[in-house]
């Protein structure tokens, strides 16, 4: 058993100050942290409880954006009227993740910070560059079927990002607000999660002593329809083999704007911008969707057990686009 100190923060400034100076972790719902502490993968010397912070509100801004407190639970966010009406892809993504009990505890900020499900990372003993830089990647040449990526990988890490919520937010567009010793700053959501490259231990653009306080969604695309599709080994409580969150706006039968993000196949929530551009001005039909899906997986690198994710991911994109445009 490892000892750690515990502190309950009553303000953002107190939380940030308490987090500084030694290996620490913030705890909210604890749905990831507690697992990894029990597995001895994360070894914080101090745990800072942020459940008392006033970050539970969902606020509609004058410019049409939606500001979400970091402590808003996945359940409350999924069932919020504005989310269901204007950001249906996010509601669908949230409700496809985890179980009801976990969604009741899991928070927006914690979900953004969710860590990979790679068994080699979580077993605490296998070579893993994310857990122990320079030790190697056991997934390359090992079991890499279900929770490993084909997009954004490197020779140092191929673990896929596990979040459903983050895929939808990548499609919508968002800003992450963080607070630290140097004050408040904003990070574009697409820049928040980092590719593994040569430094897979660096998973996000958050500095060591910073705390996520809000995620603000971009204003919804005018006249949009959307869909989130998650393909997995079983119908519930399972991480995606491949998923697609899409937002489409049409003028008649012609696509005016499209957003495509994918999960289960990338080392971060994967926004397929070239595929989106290929859809603009095209008819909303199967041929256009298939072409966009092919473009979305250009440059994909399959591994021994997960090559099937390329055609599966393409199917997810096509089916999501089809469902969004025929709703």
Automatic annotation (TrEMBL):
<dbReference type="InterPro" id="IPR005107">
    <property type="entry name" value="CO_DH_flav_C"/>
</dbReference>
<feature type="domain" description="FAD-binding PCMH-type">
    <location>
        <begin position="1"/>
        <end position="222"/>
    </location>
</feature>
<keyword id="KW-0274">FAD</keyword>
<dbReference type="InterPro" id="IPR036683">
    <property type="entry name" value="CO_DH_flav_C_dom_sf"/>
</dbReference>
<dbReference type="InterPro" id="IPR002346">
    <property type="entry name" value="Mopterin_DH_FAD-bd"/>
</dbReference>
<dbReference type="Pfam" id="PF00941">
    <property type="entry name" value="FAD_binding_5"/>
</dbReference>
<dbReference type="InterPro" id="IPR051312">
    <property type="entry name" value="Diverse_Substr_Oxidored"/>
</dbReference>
<protein>
    <submittedName>
        <fullName>FAD-binding molybdopterin dehydrogenase</fullName>
    </submittedName>
</protein>
<dbReference type="Pfam" id="PF03450">
    <property type="entry name" value="CO_deh_flav_C"/>
</dbReference>
<dbReference type="InterPro" id="IPR036318">
    <property type="entry name" value="FAD-bd_PCMH-like_sf"/>
</dbReference>
<dbReference type="InterPro" id="IPR016169">
    <property type="entry name" value="FAD-bd_PCMH_sub2"/>
</dbReference>
<dbReference type="InterPro" id="IPR016166">
    <property type="entry name" value="FAD-bd_PCMH"/>
</dbReference>
<keyword id="KW-0285">Flavoprotein</keyword>
<dbReference type="InterPro" id="IPR016167">
    <property type="entry name" value="FAD-bd_PCMH_sub1"/>
</dbReference>
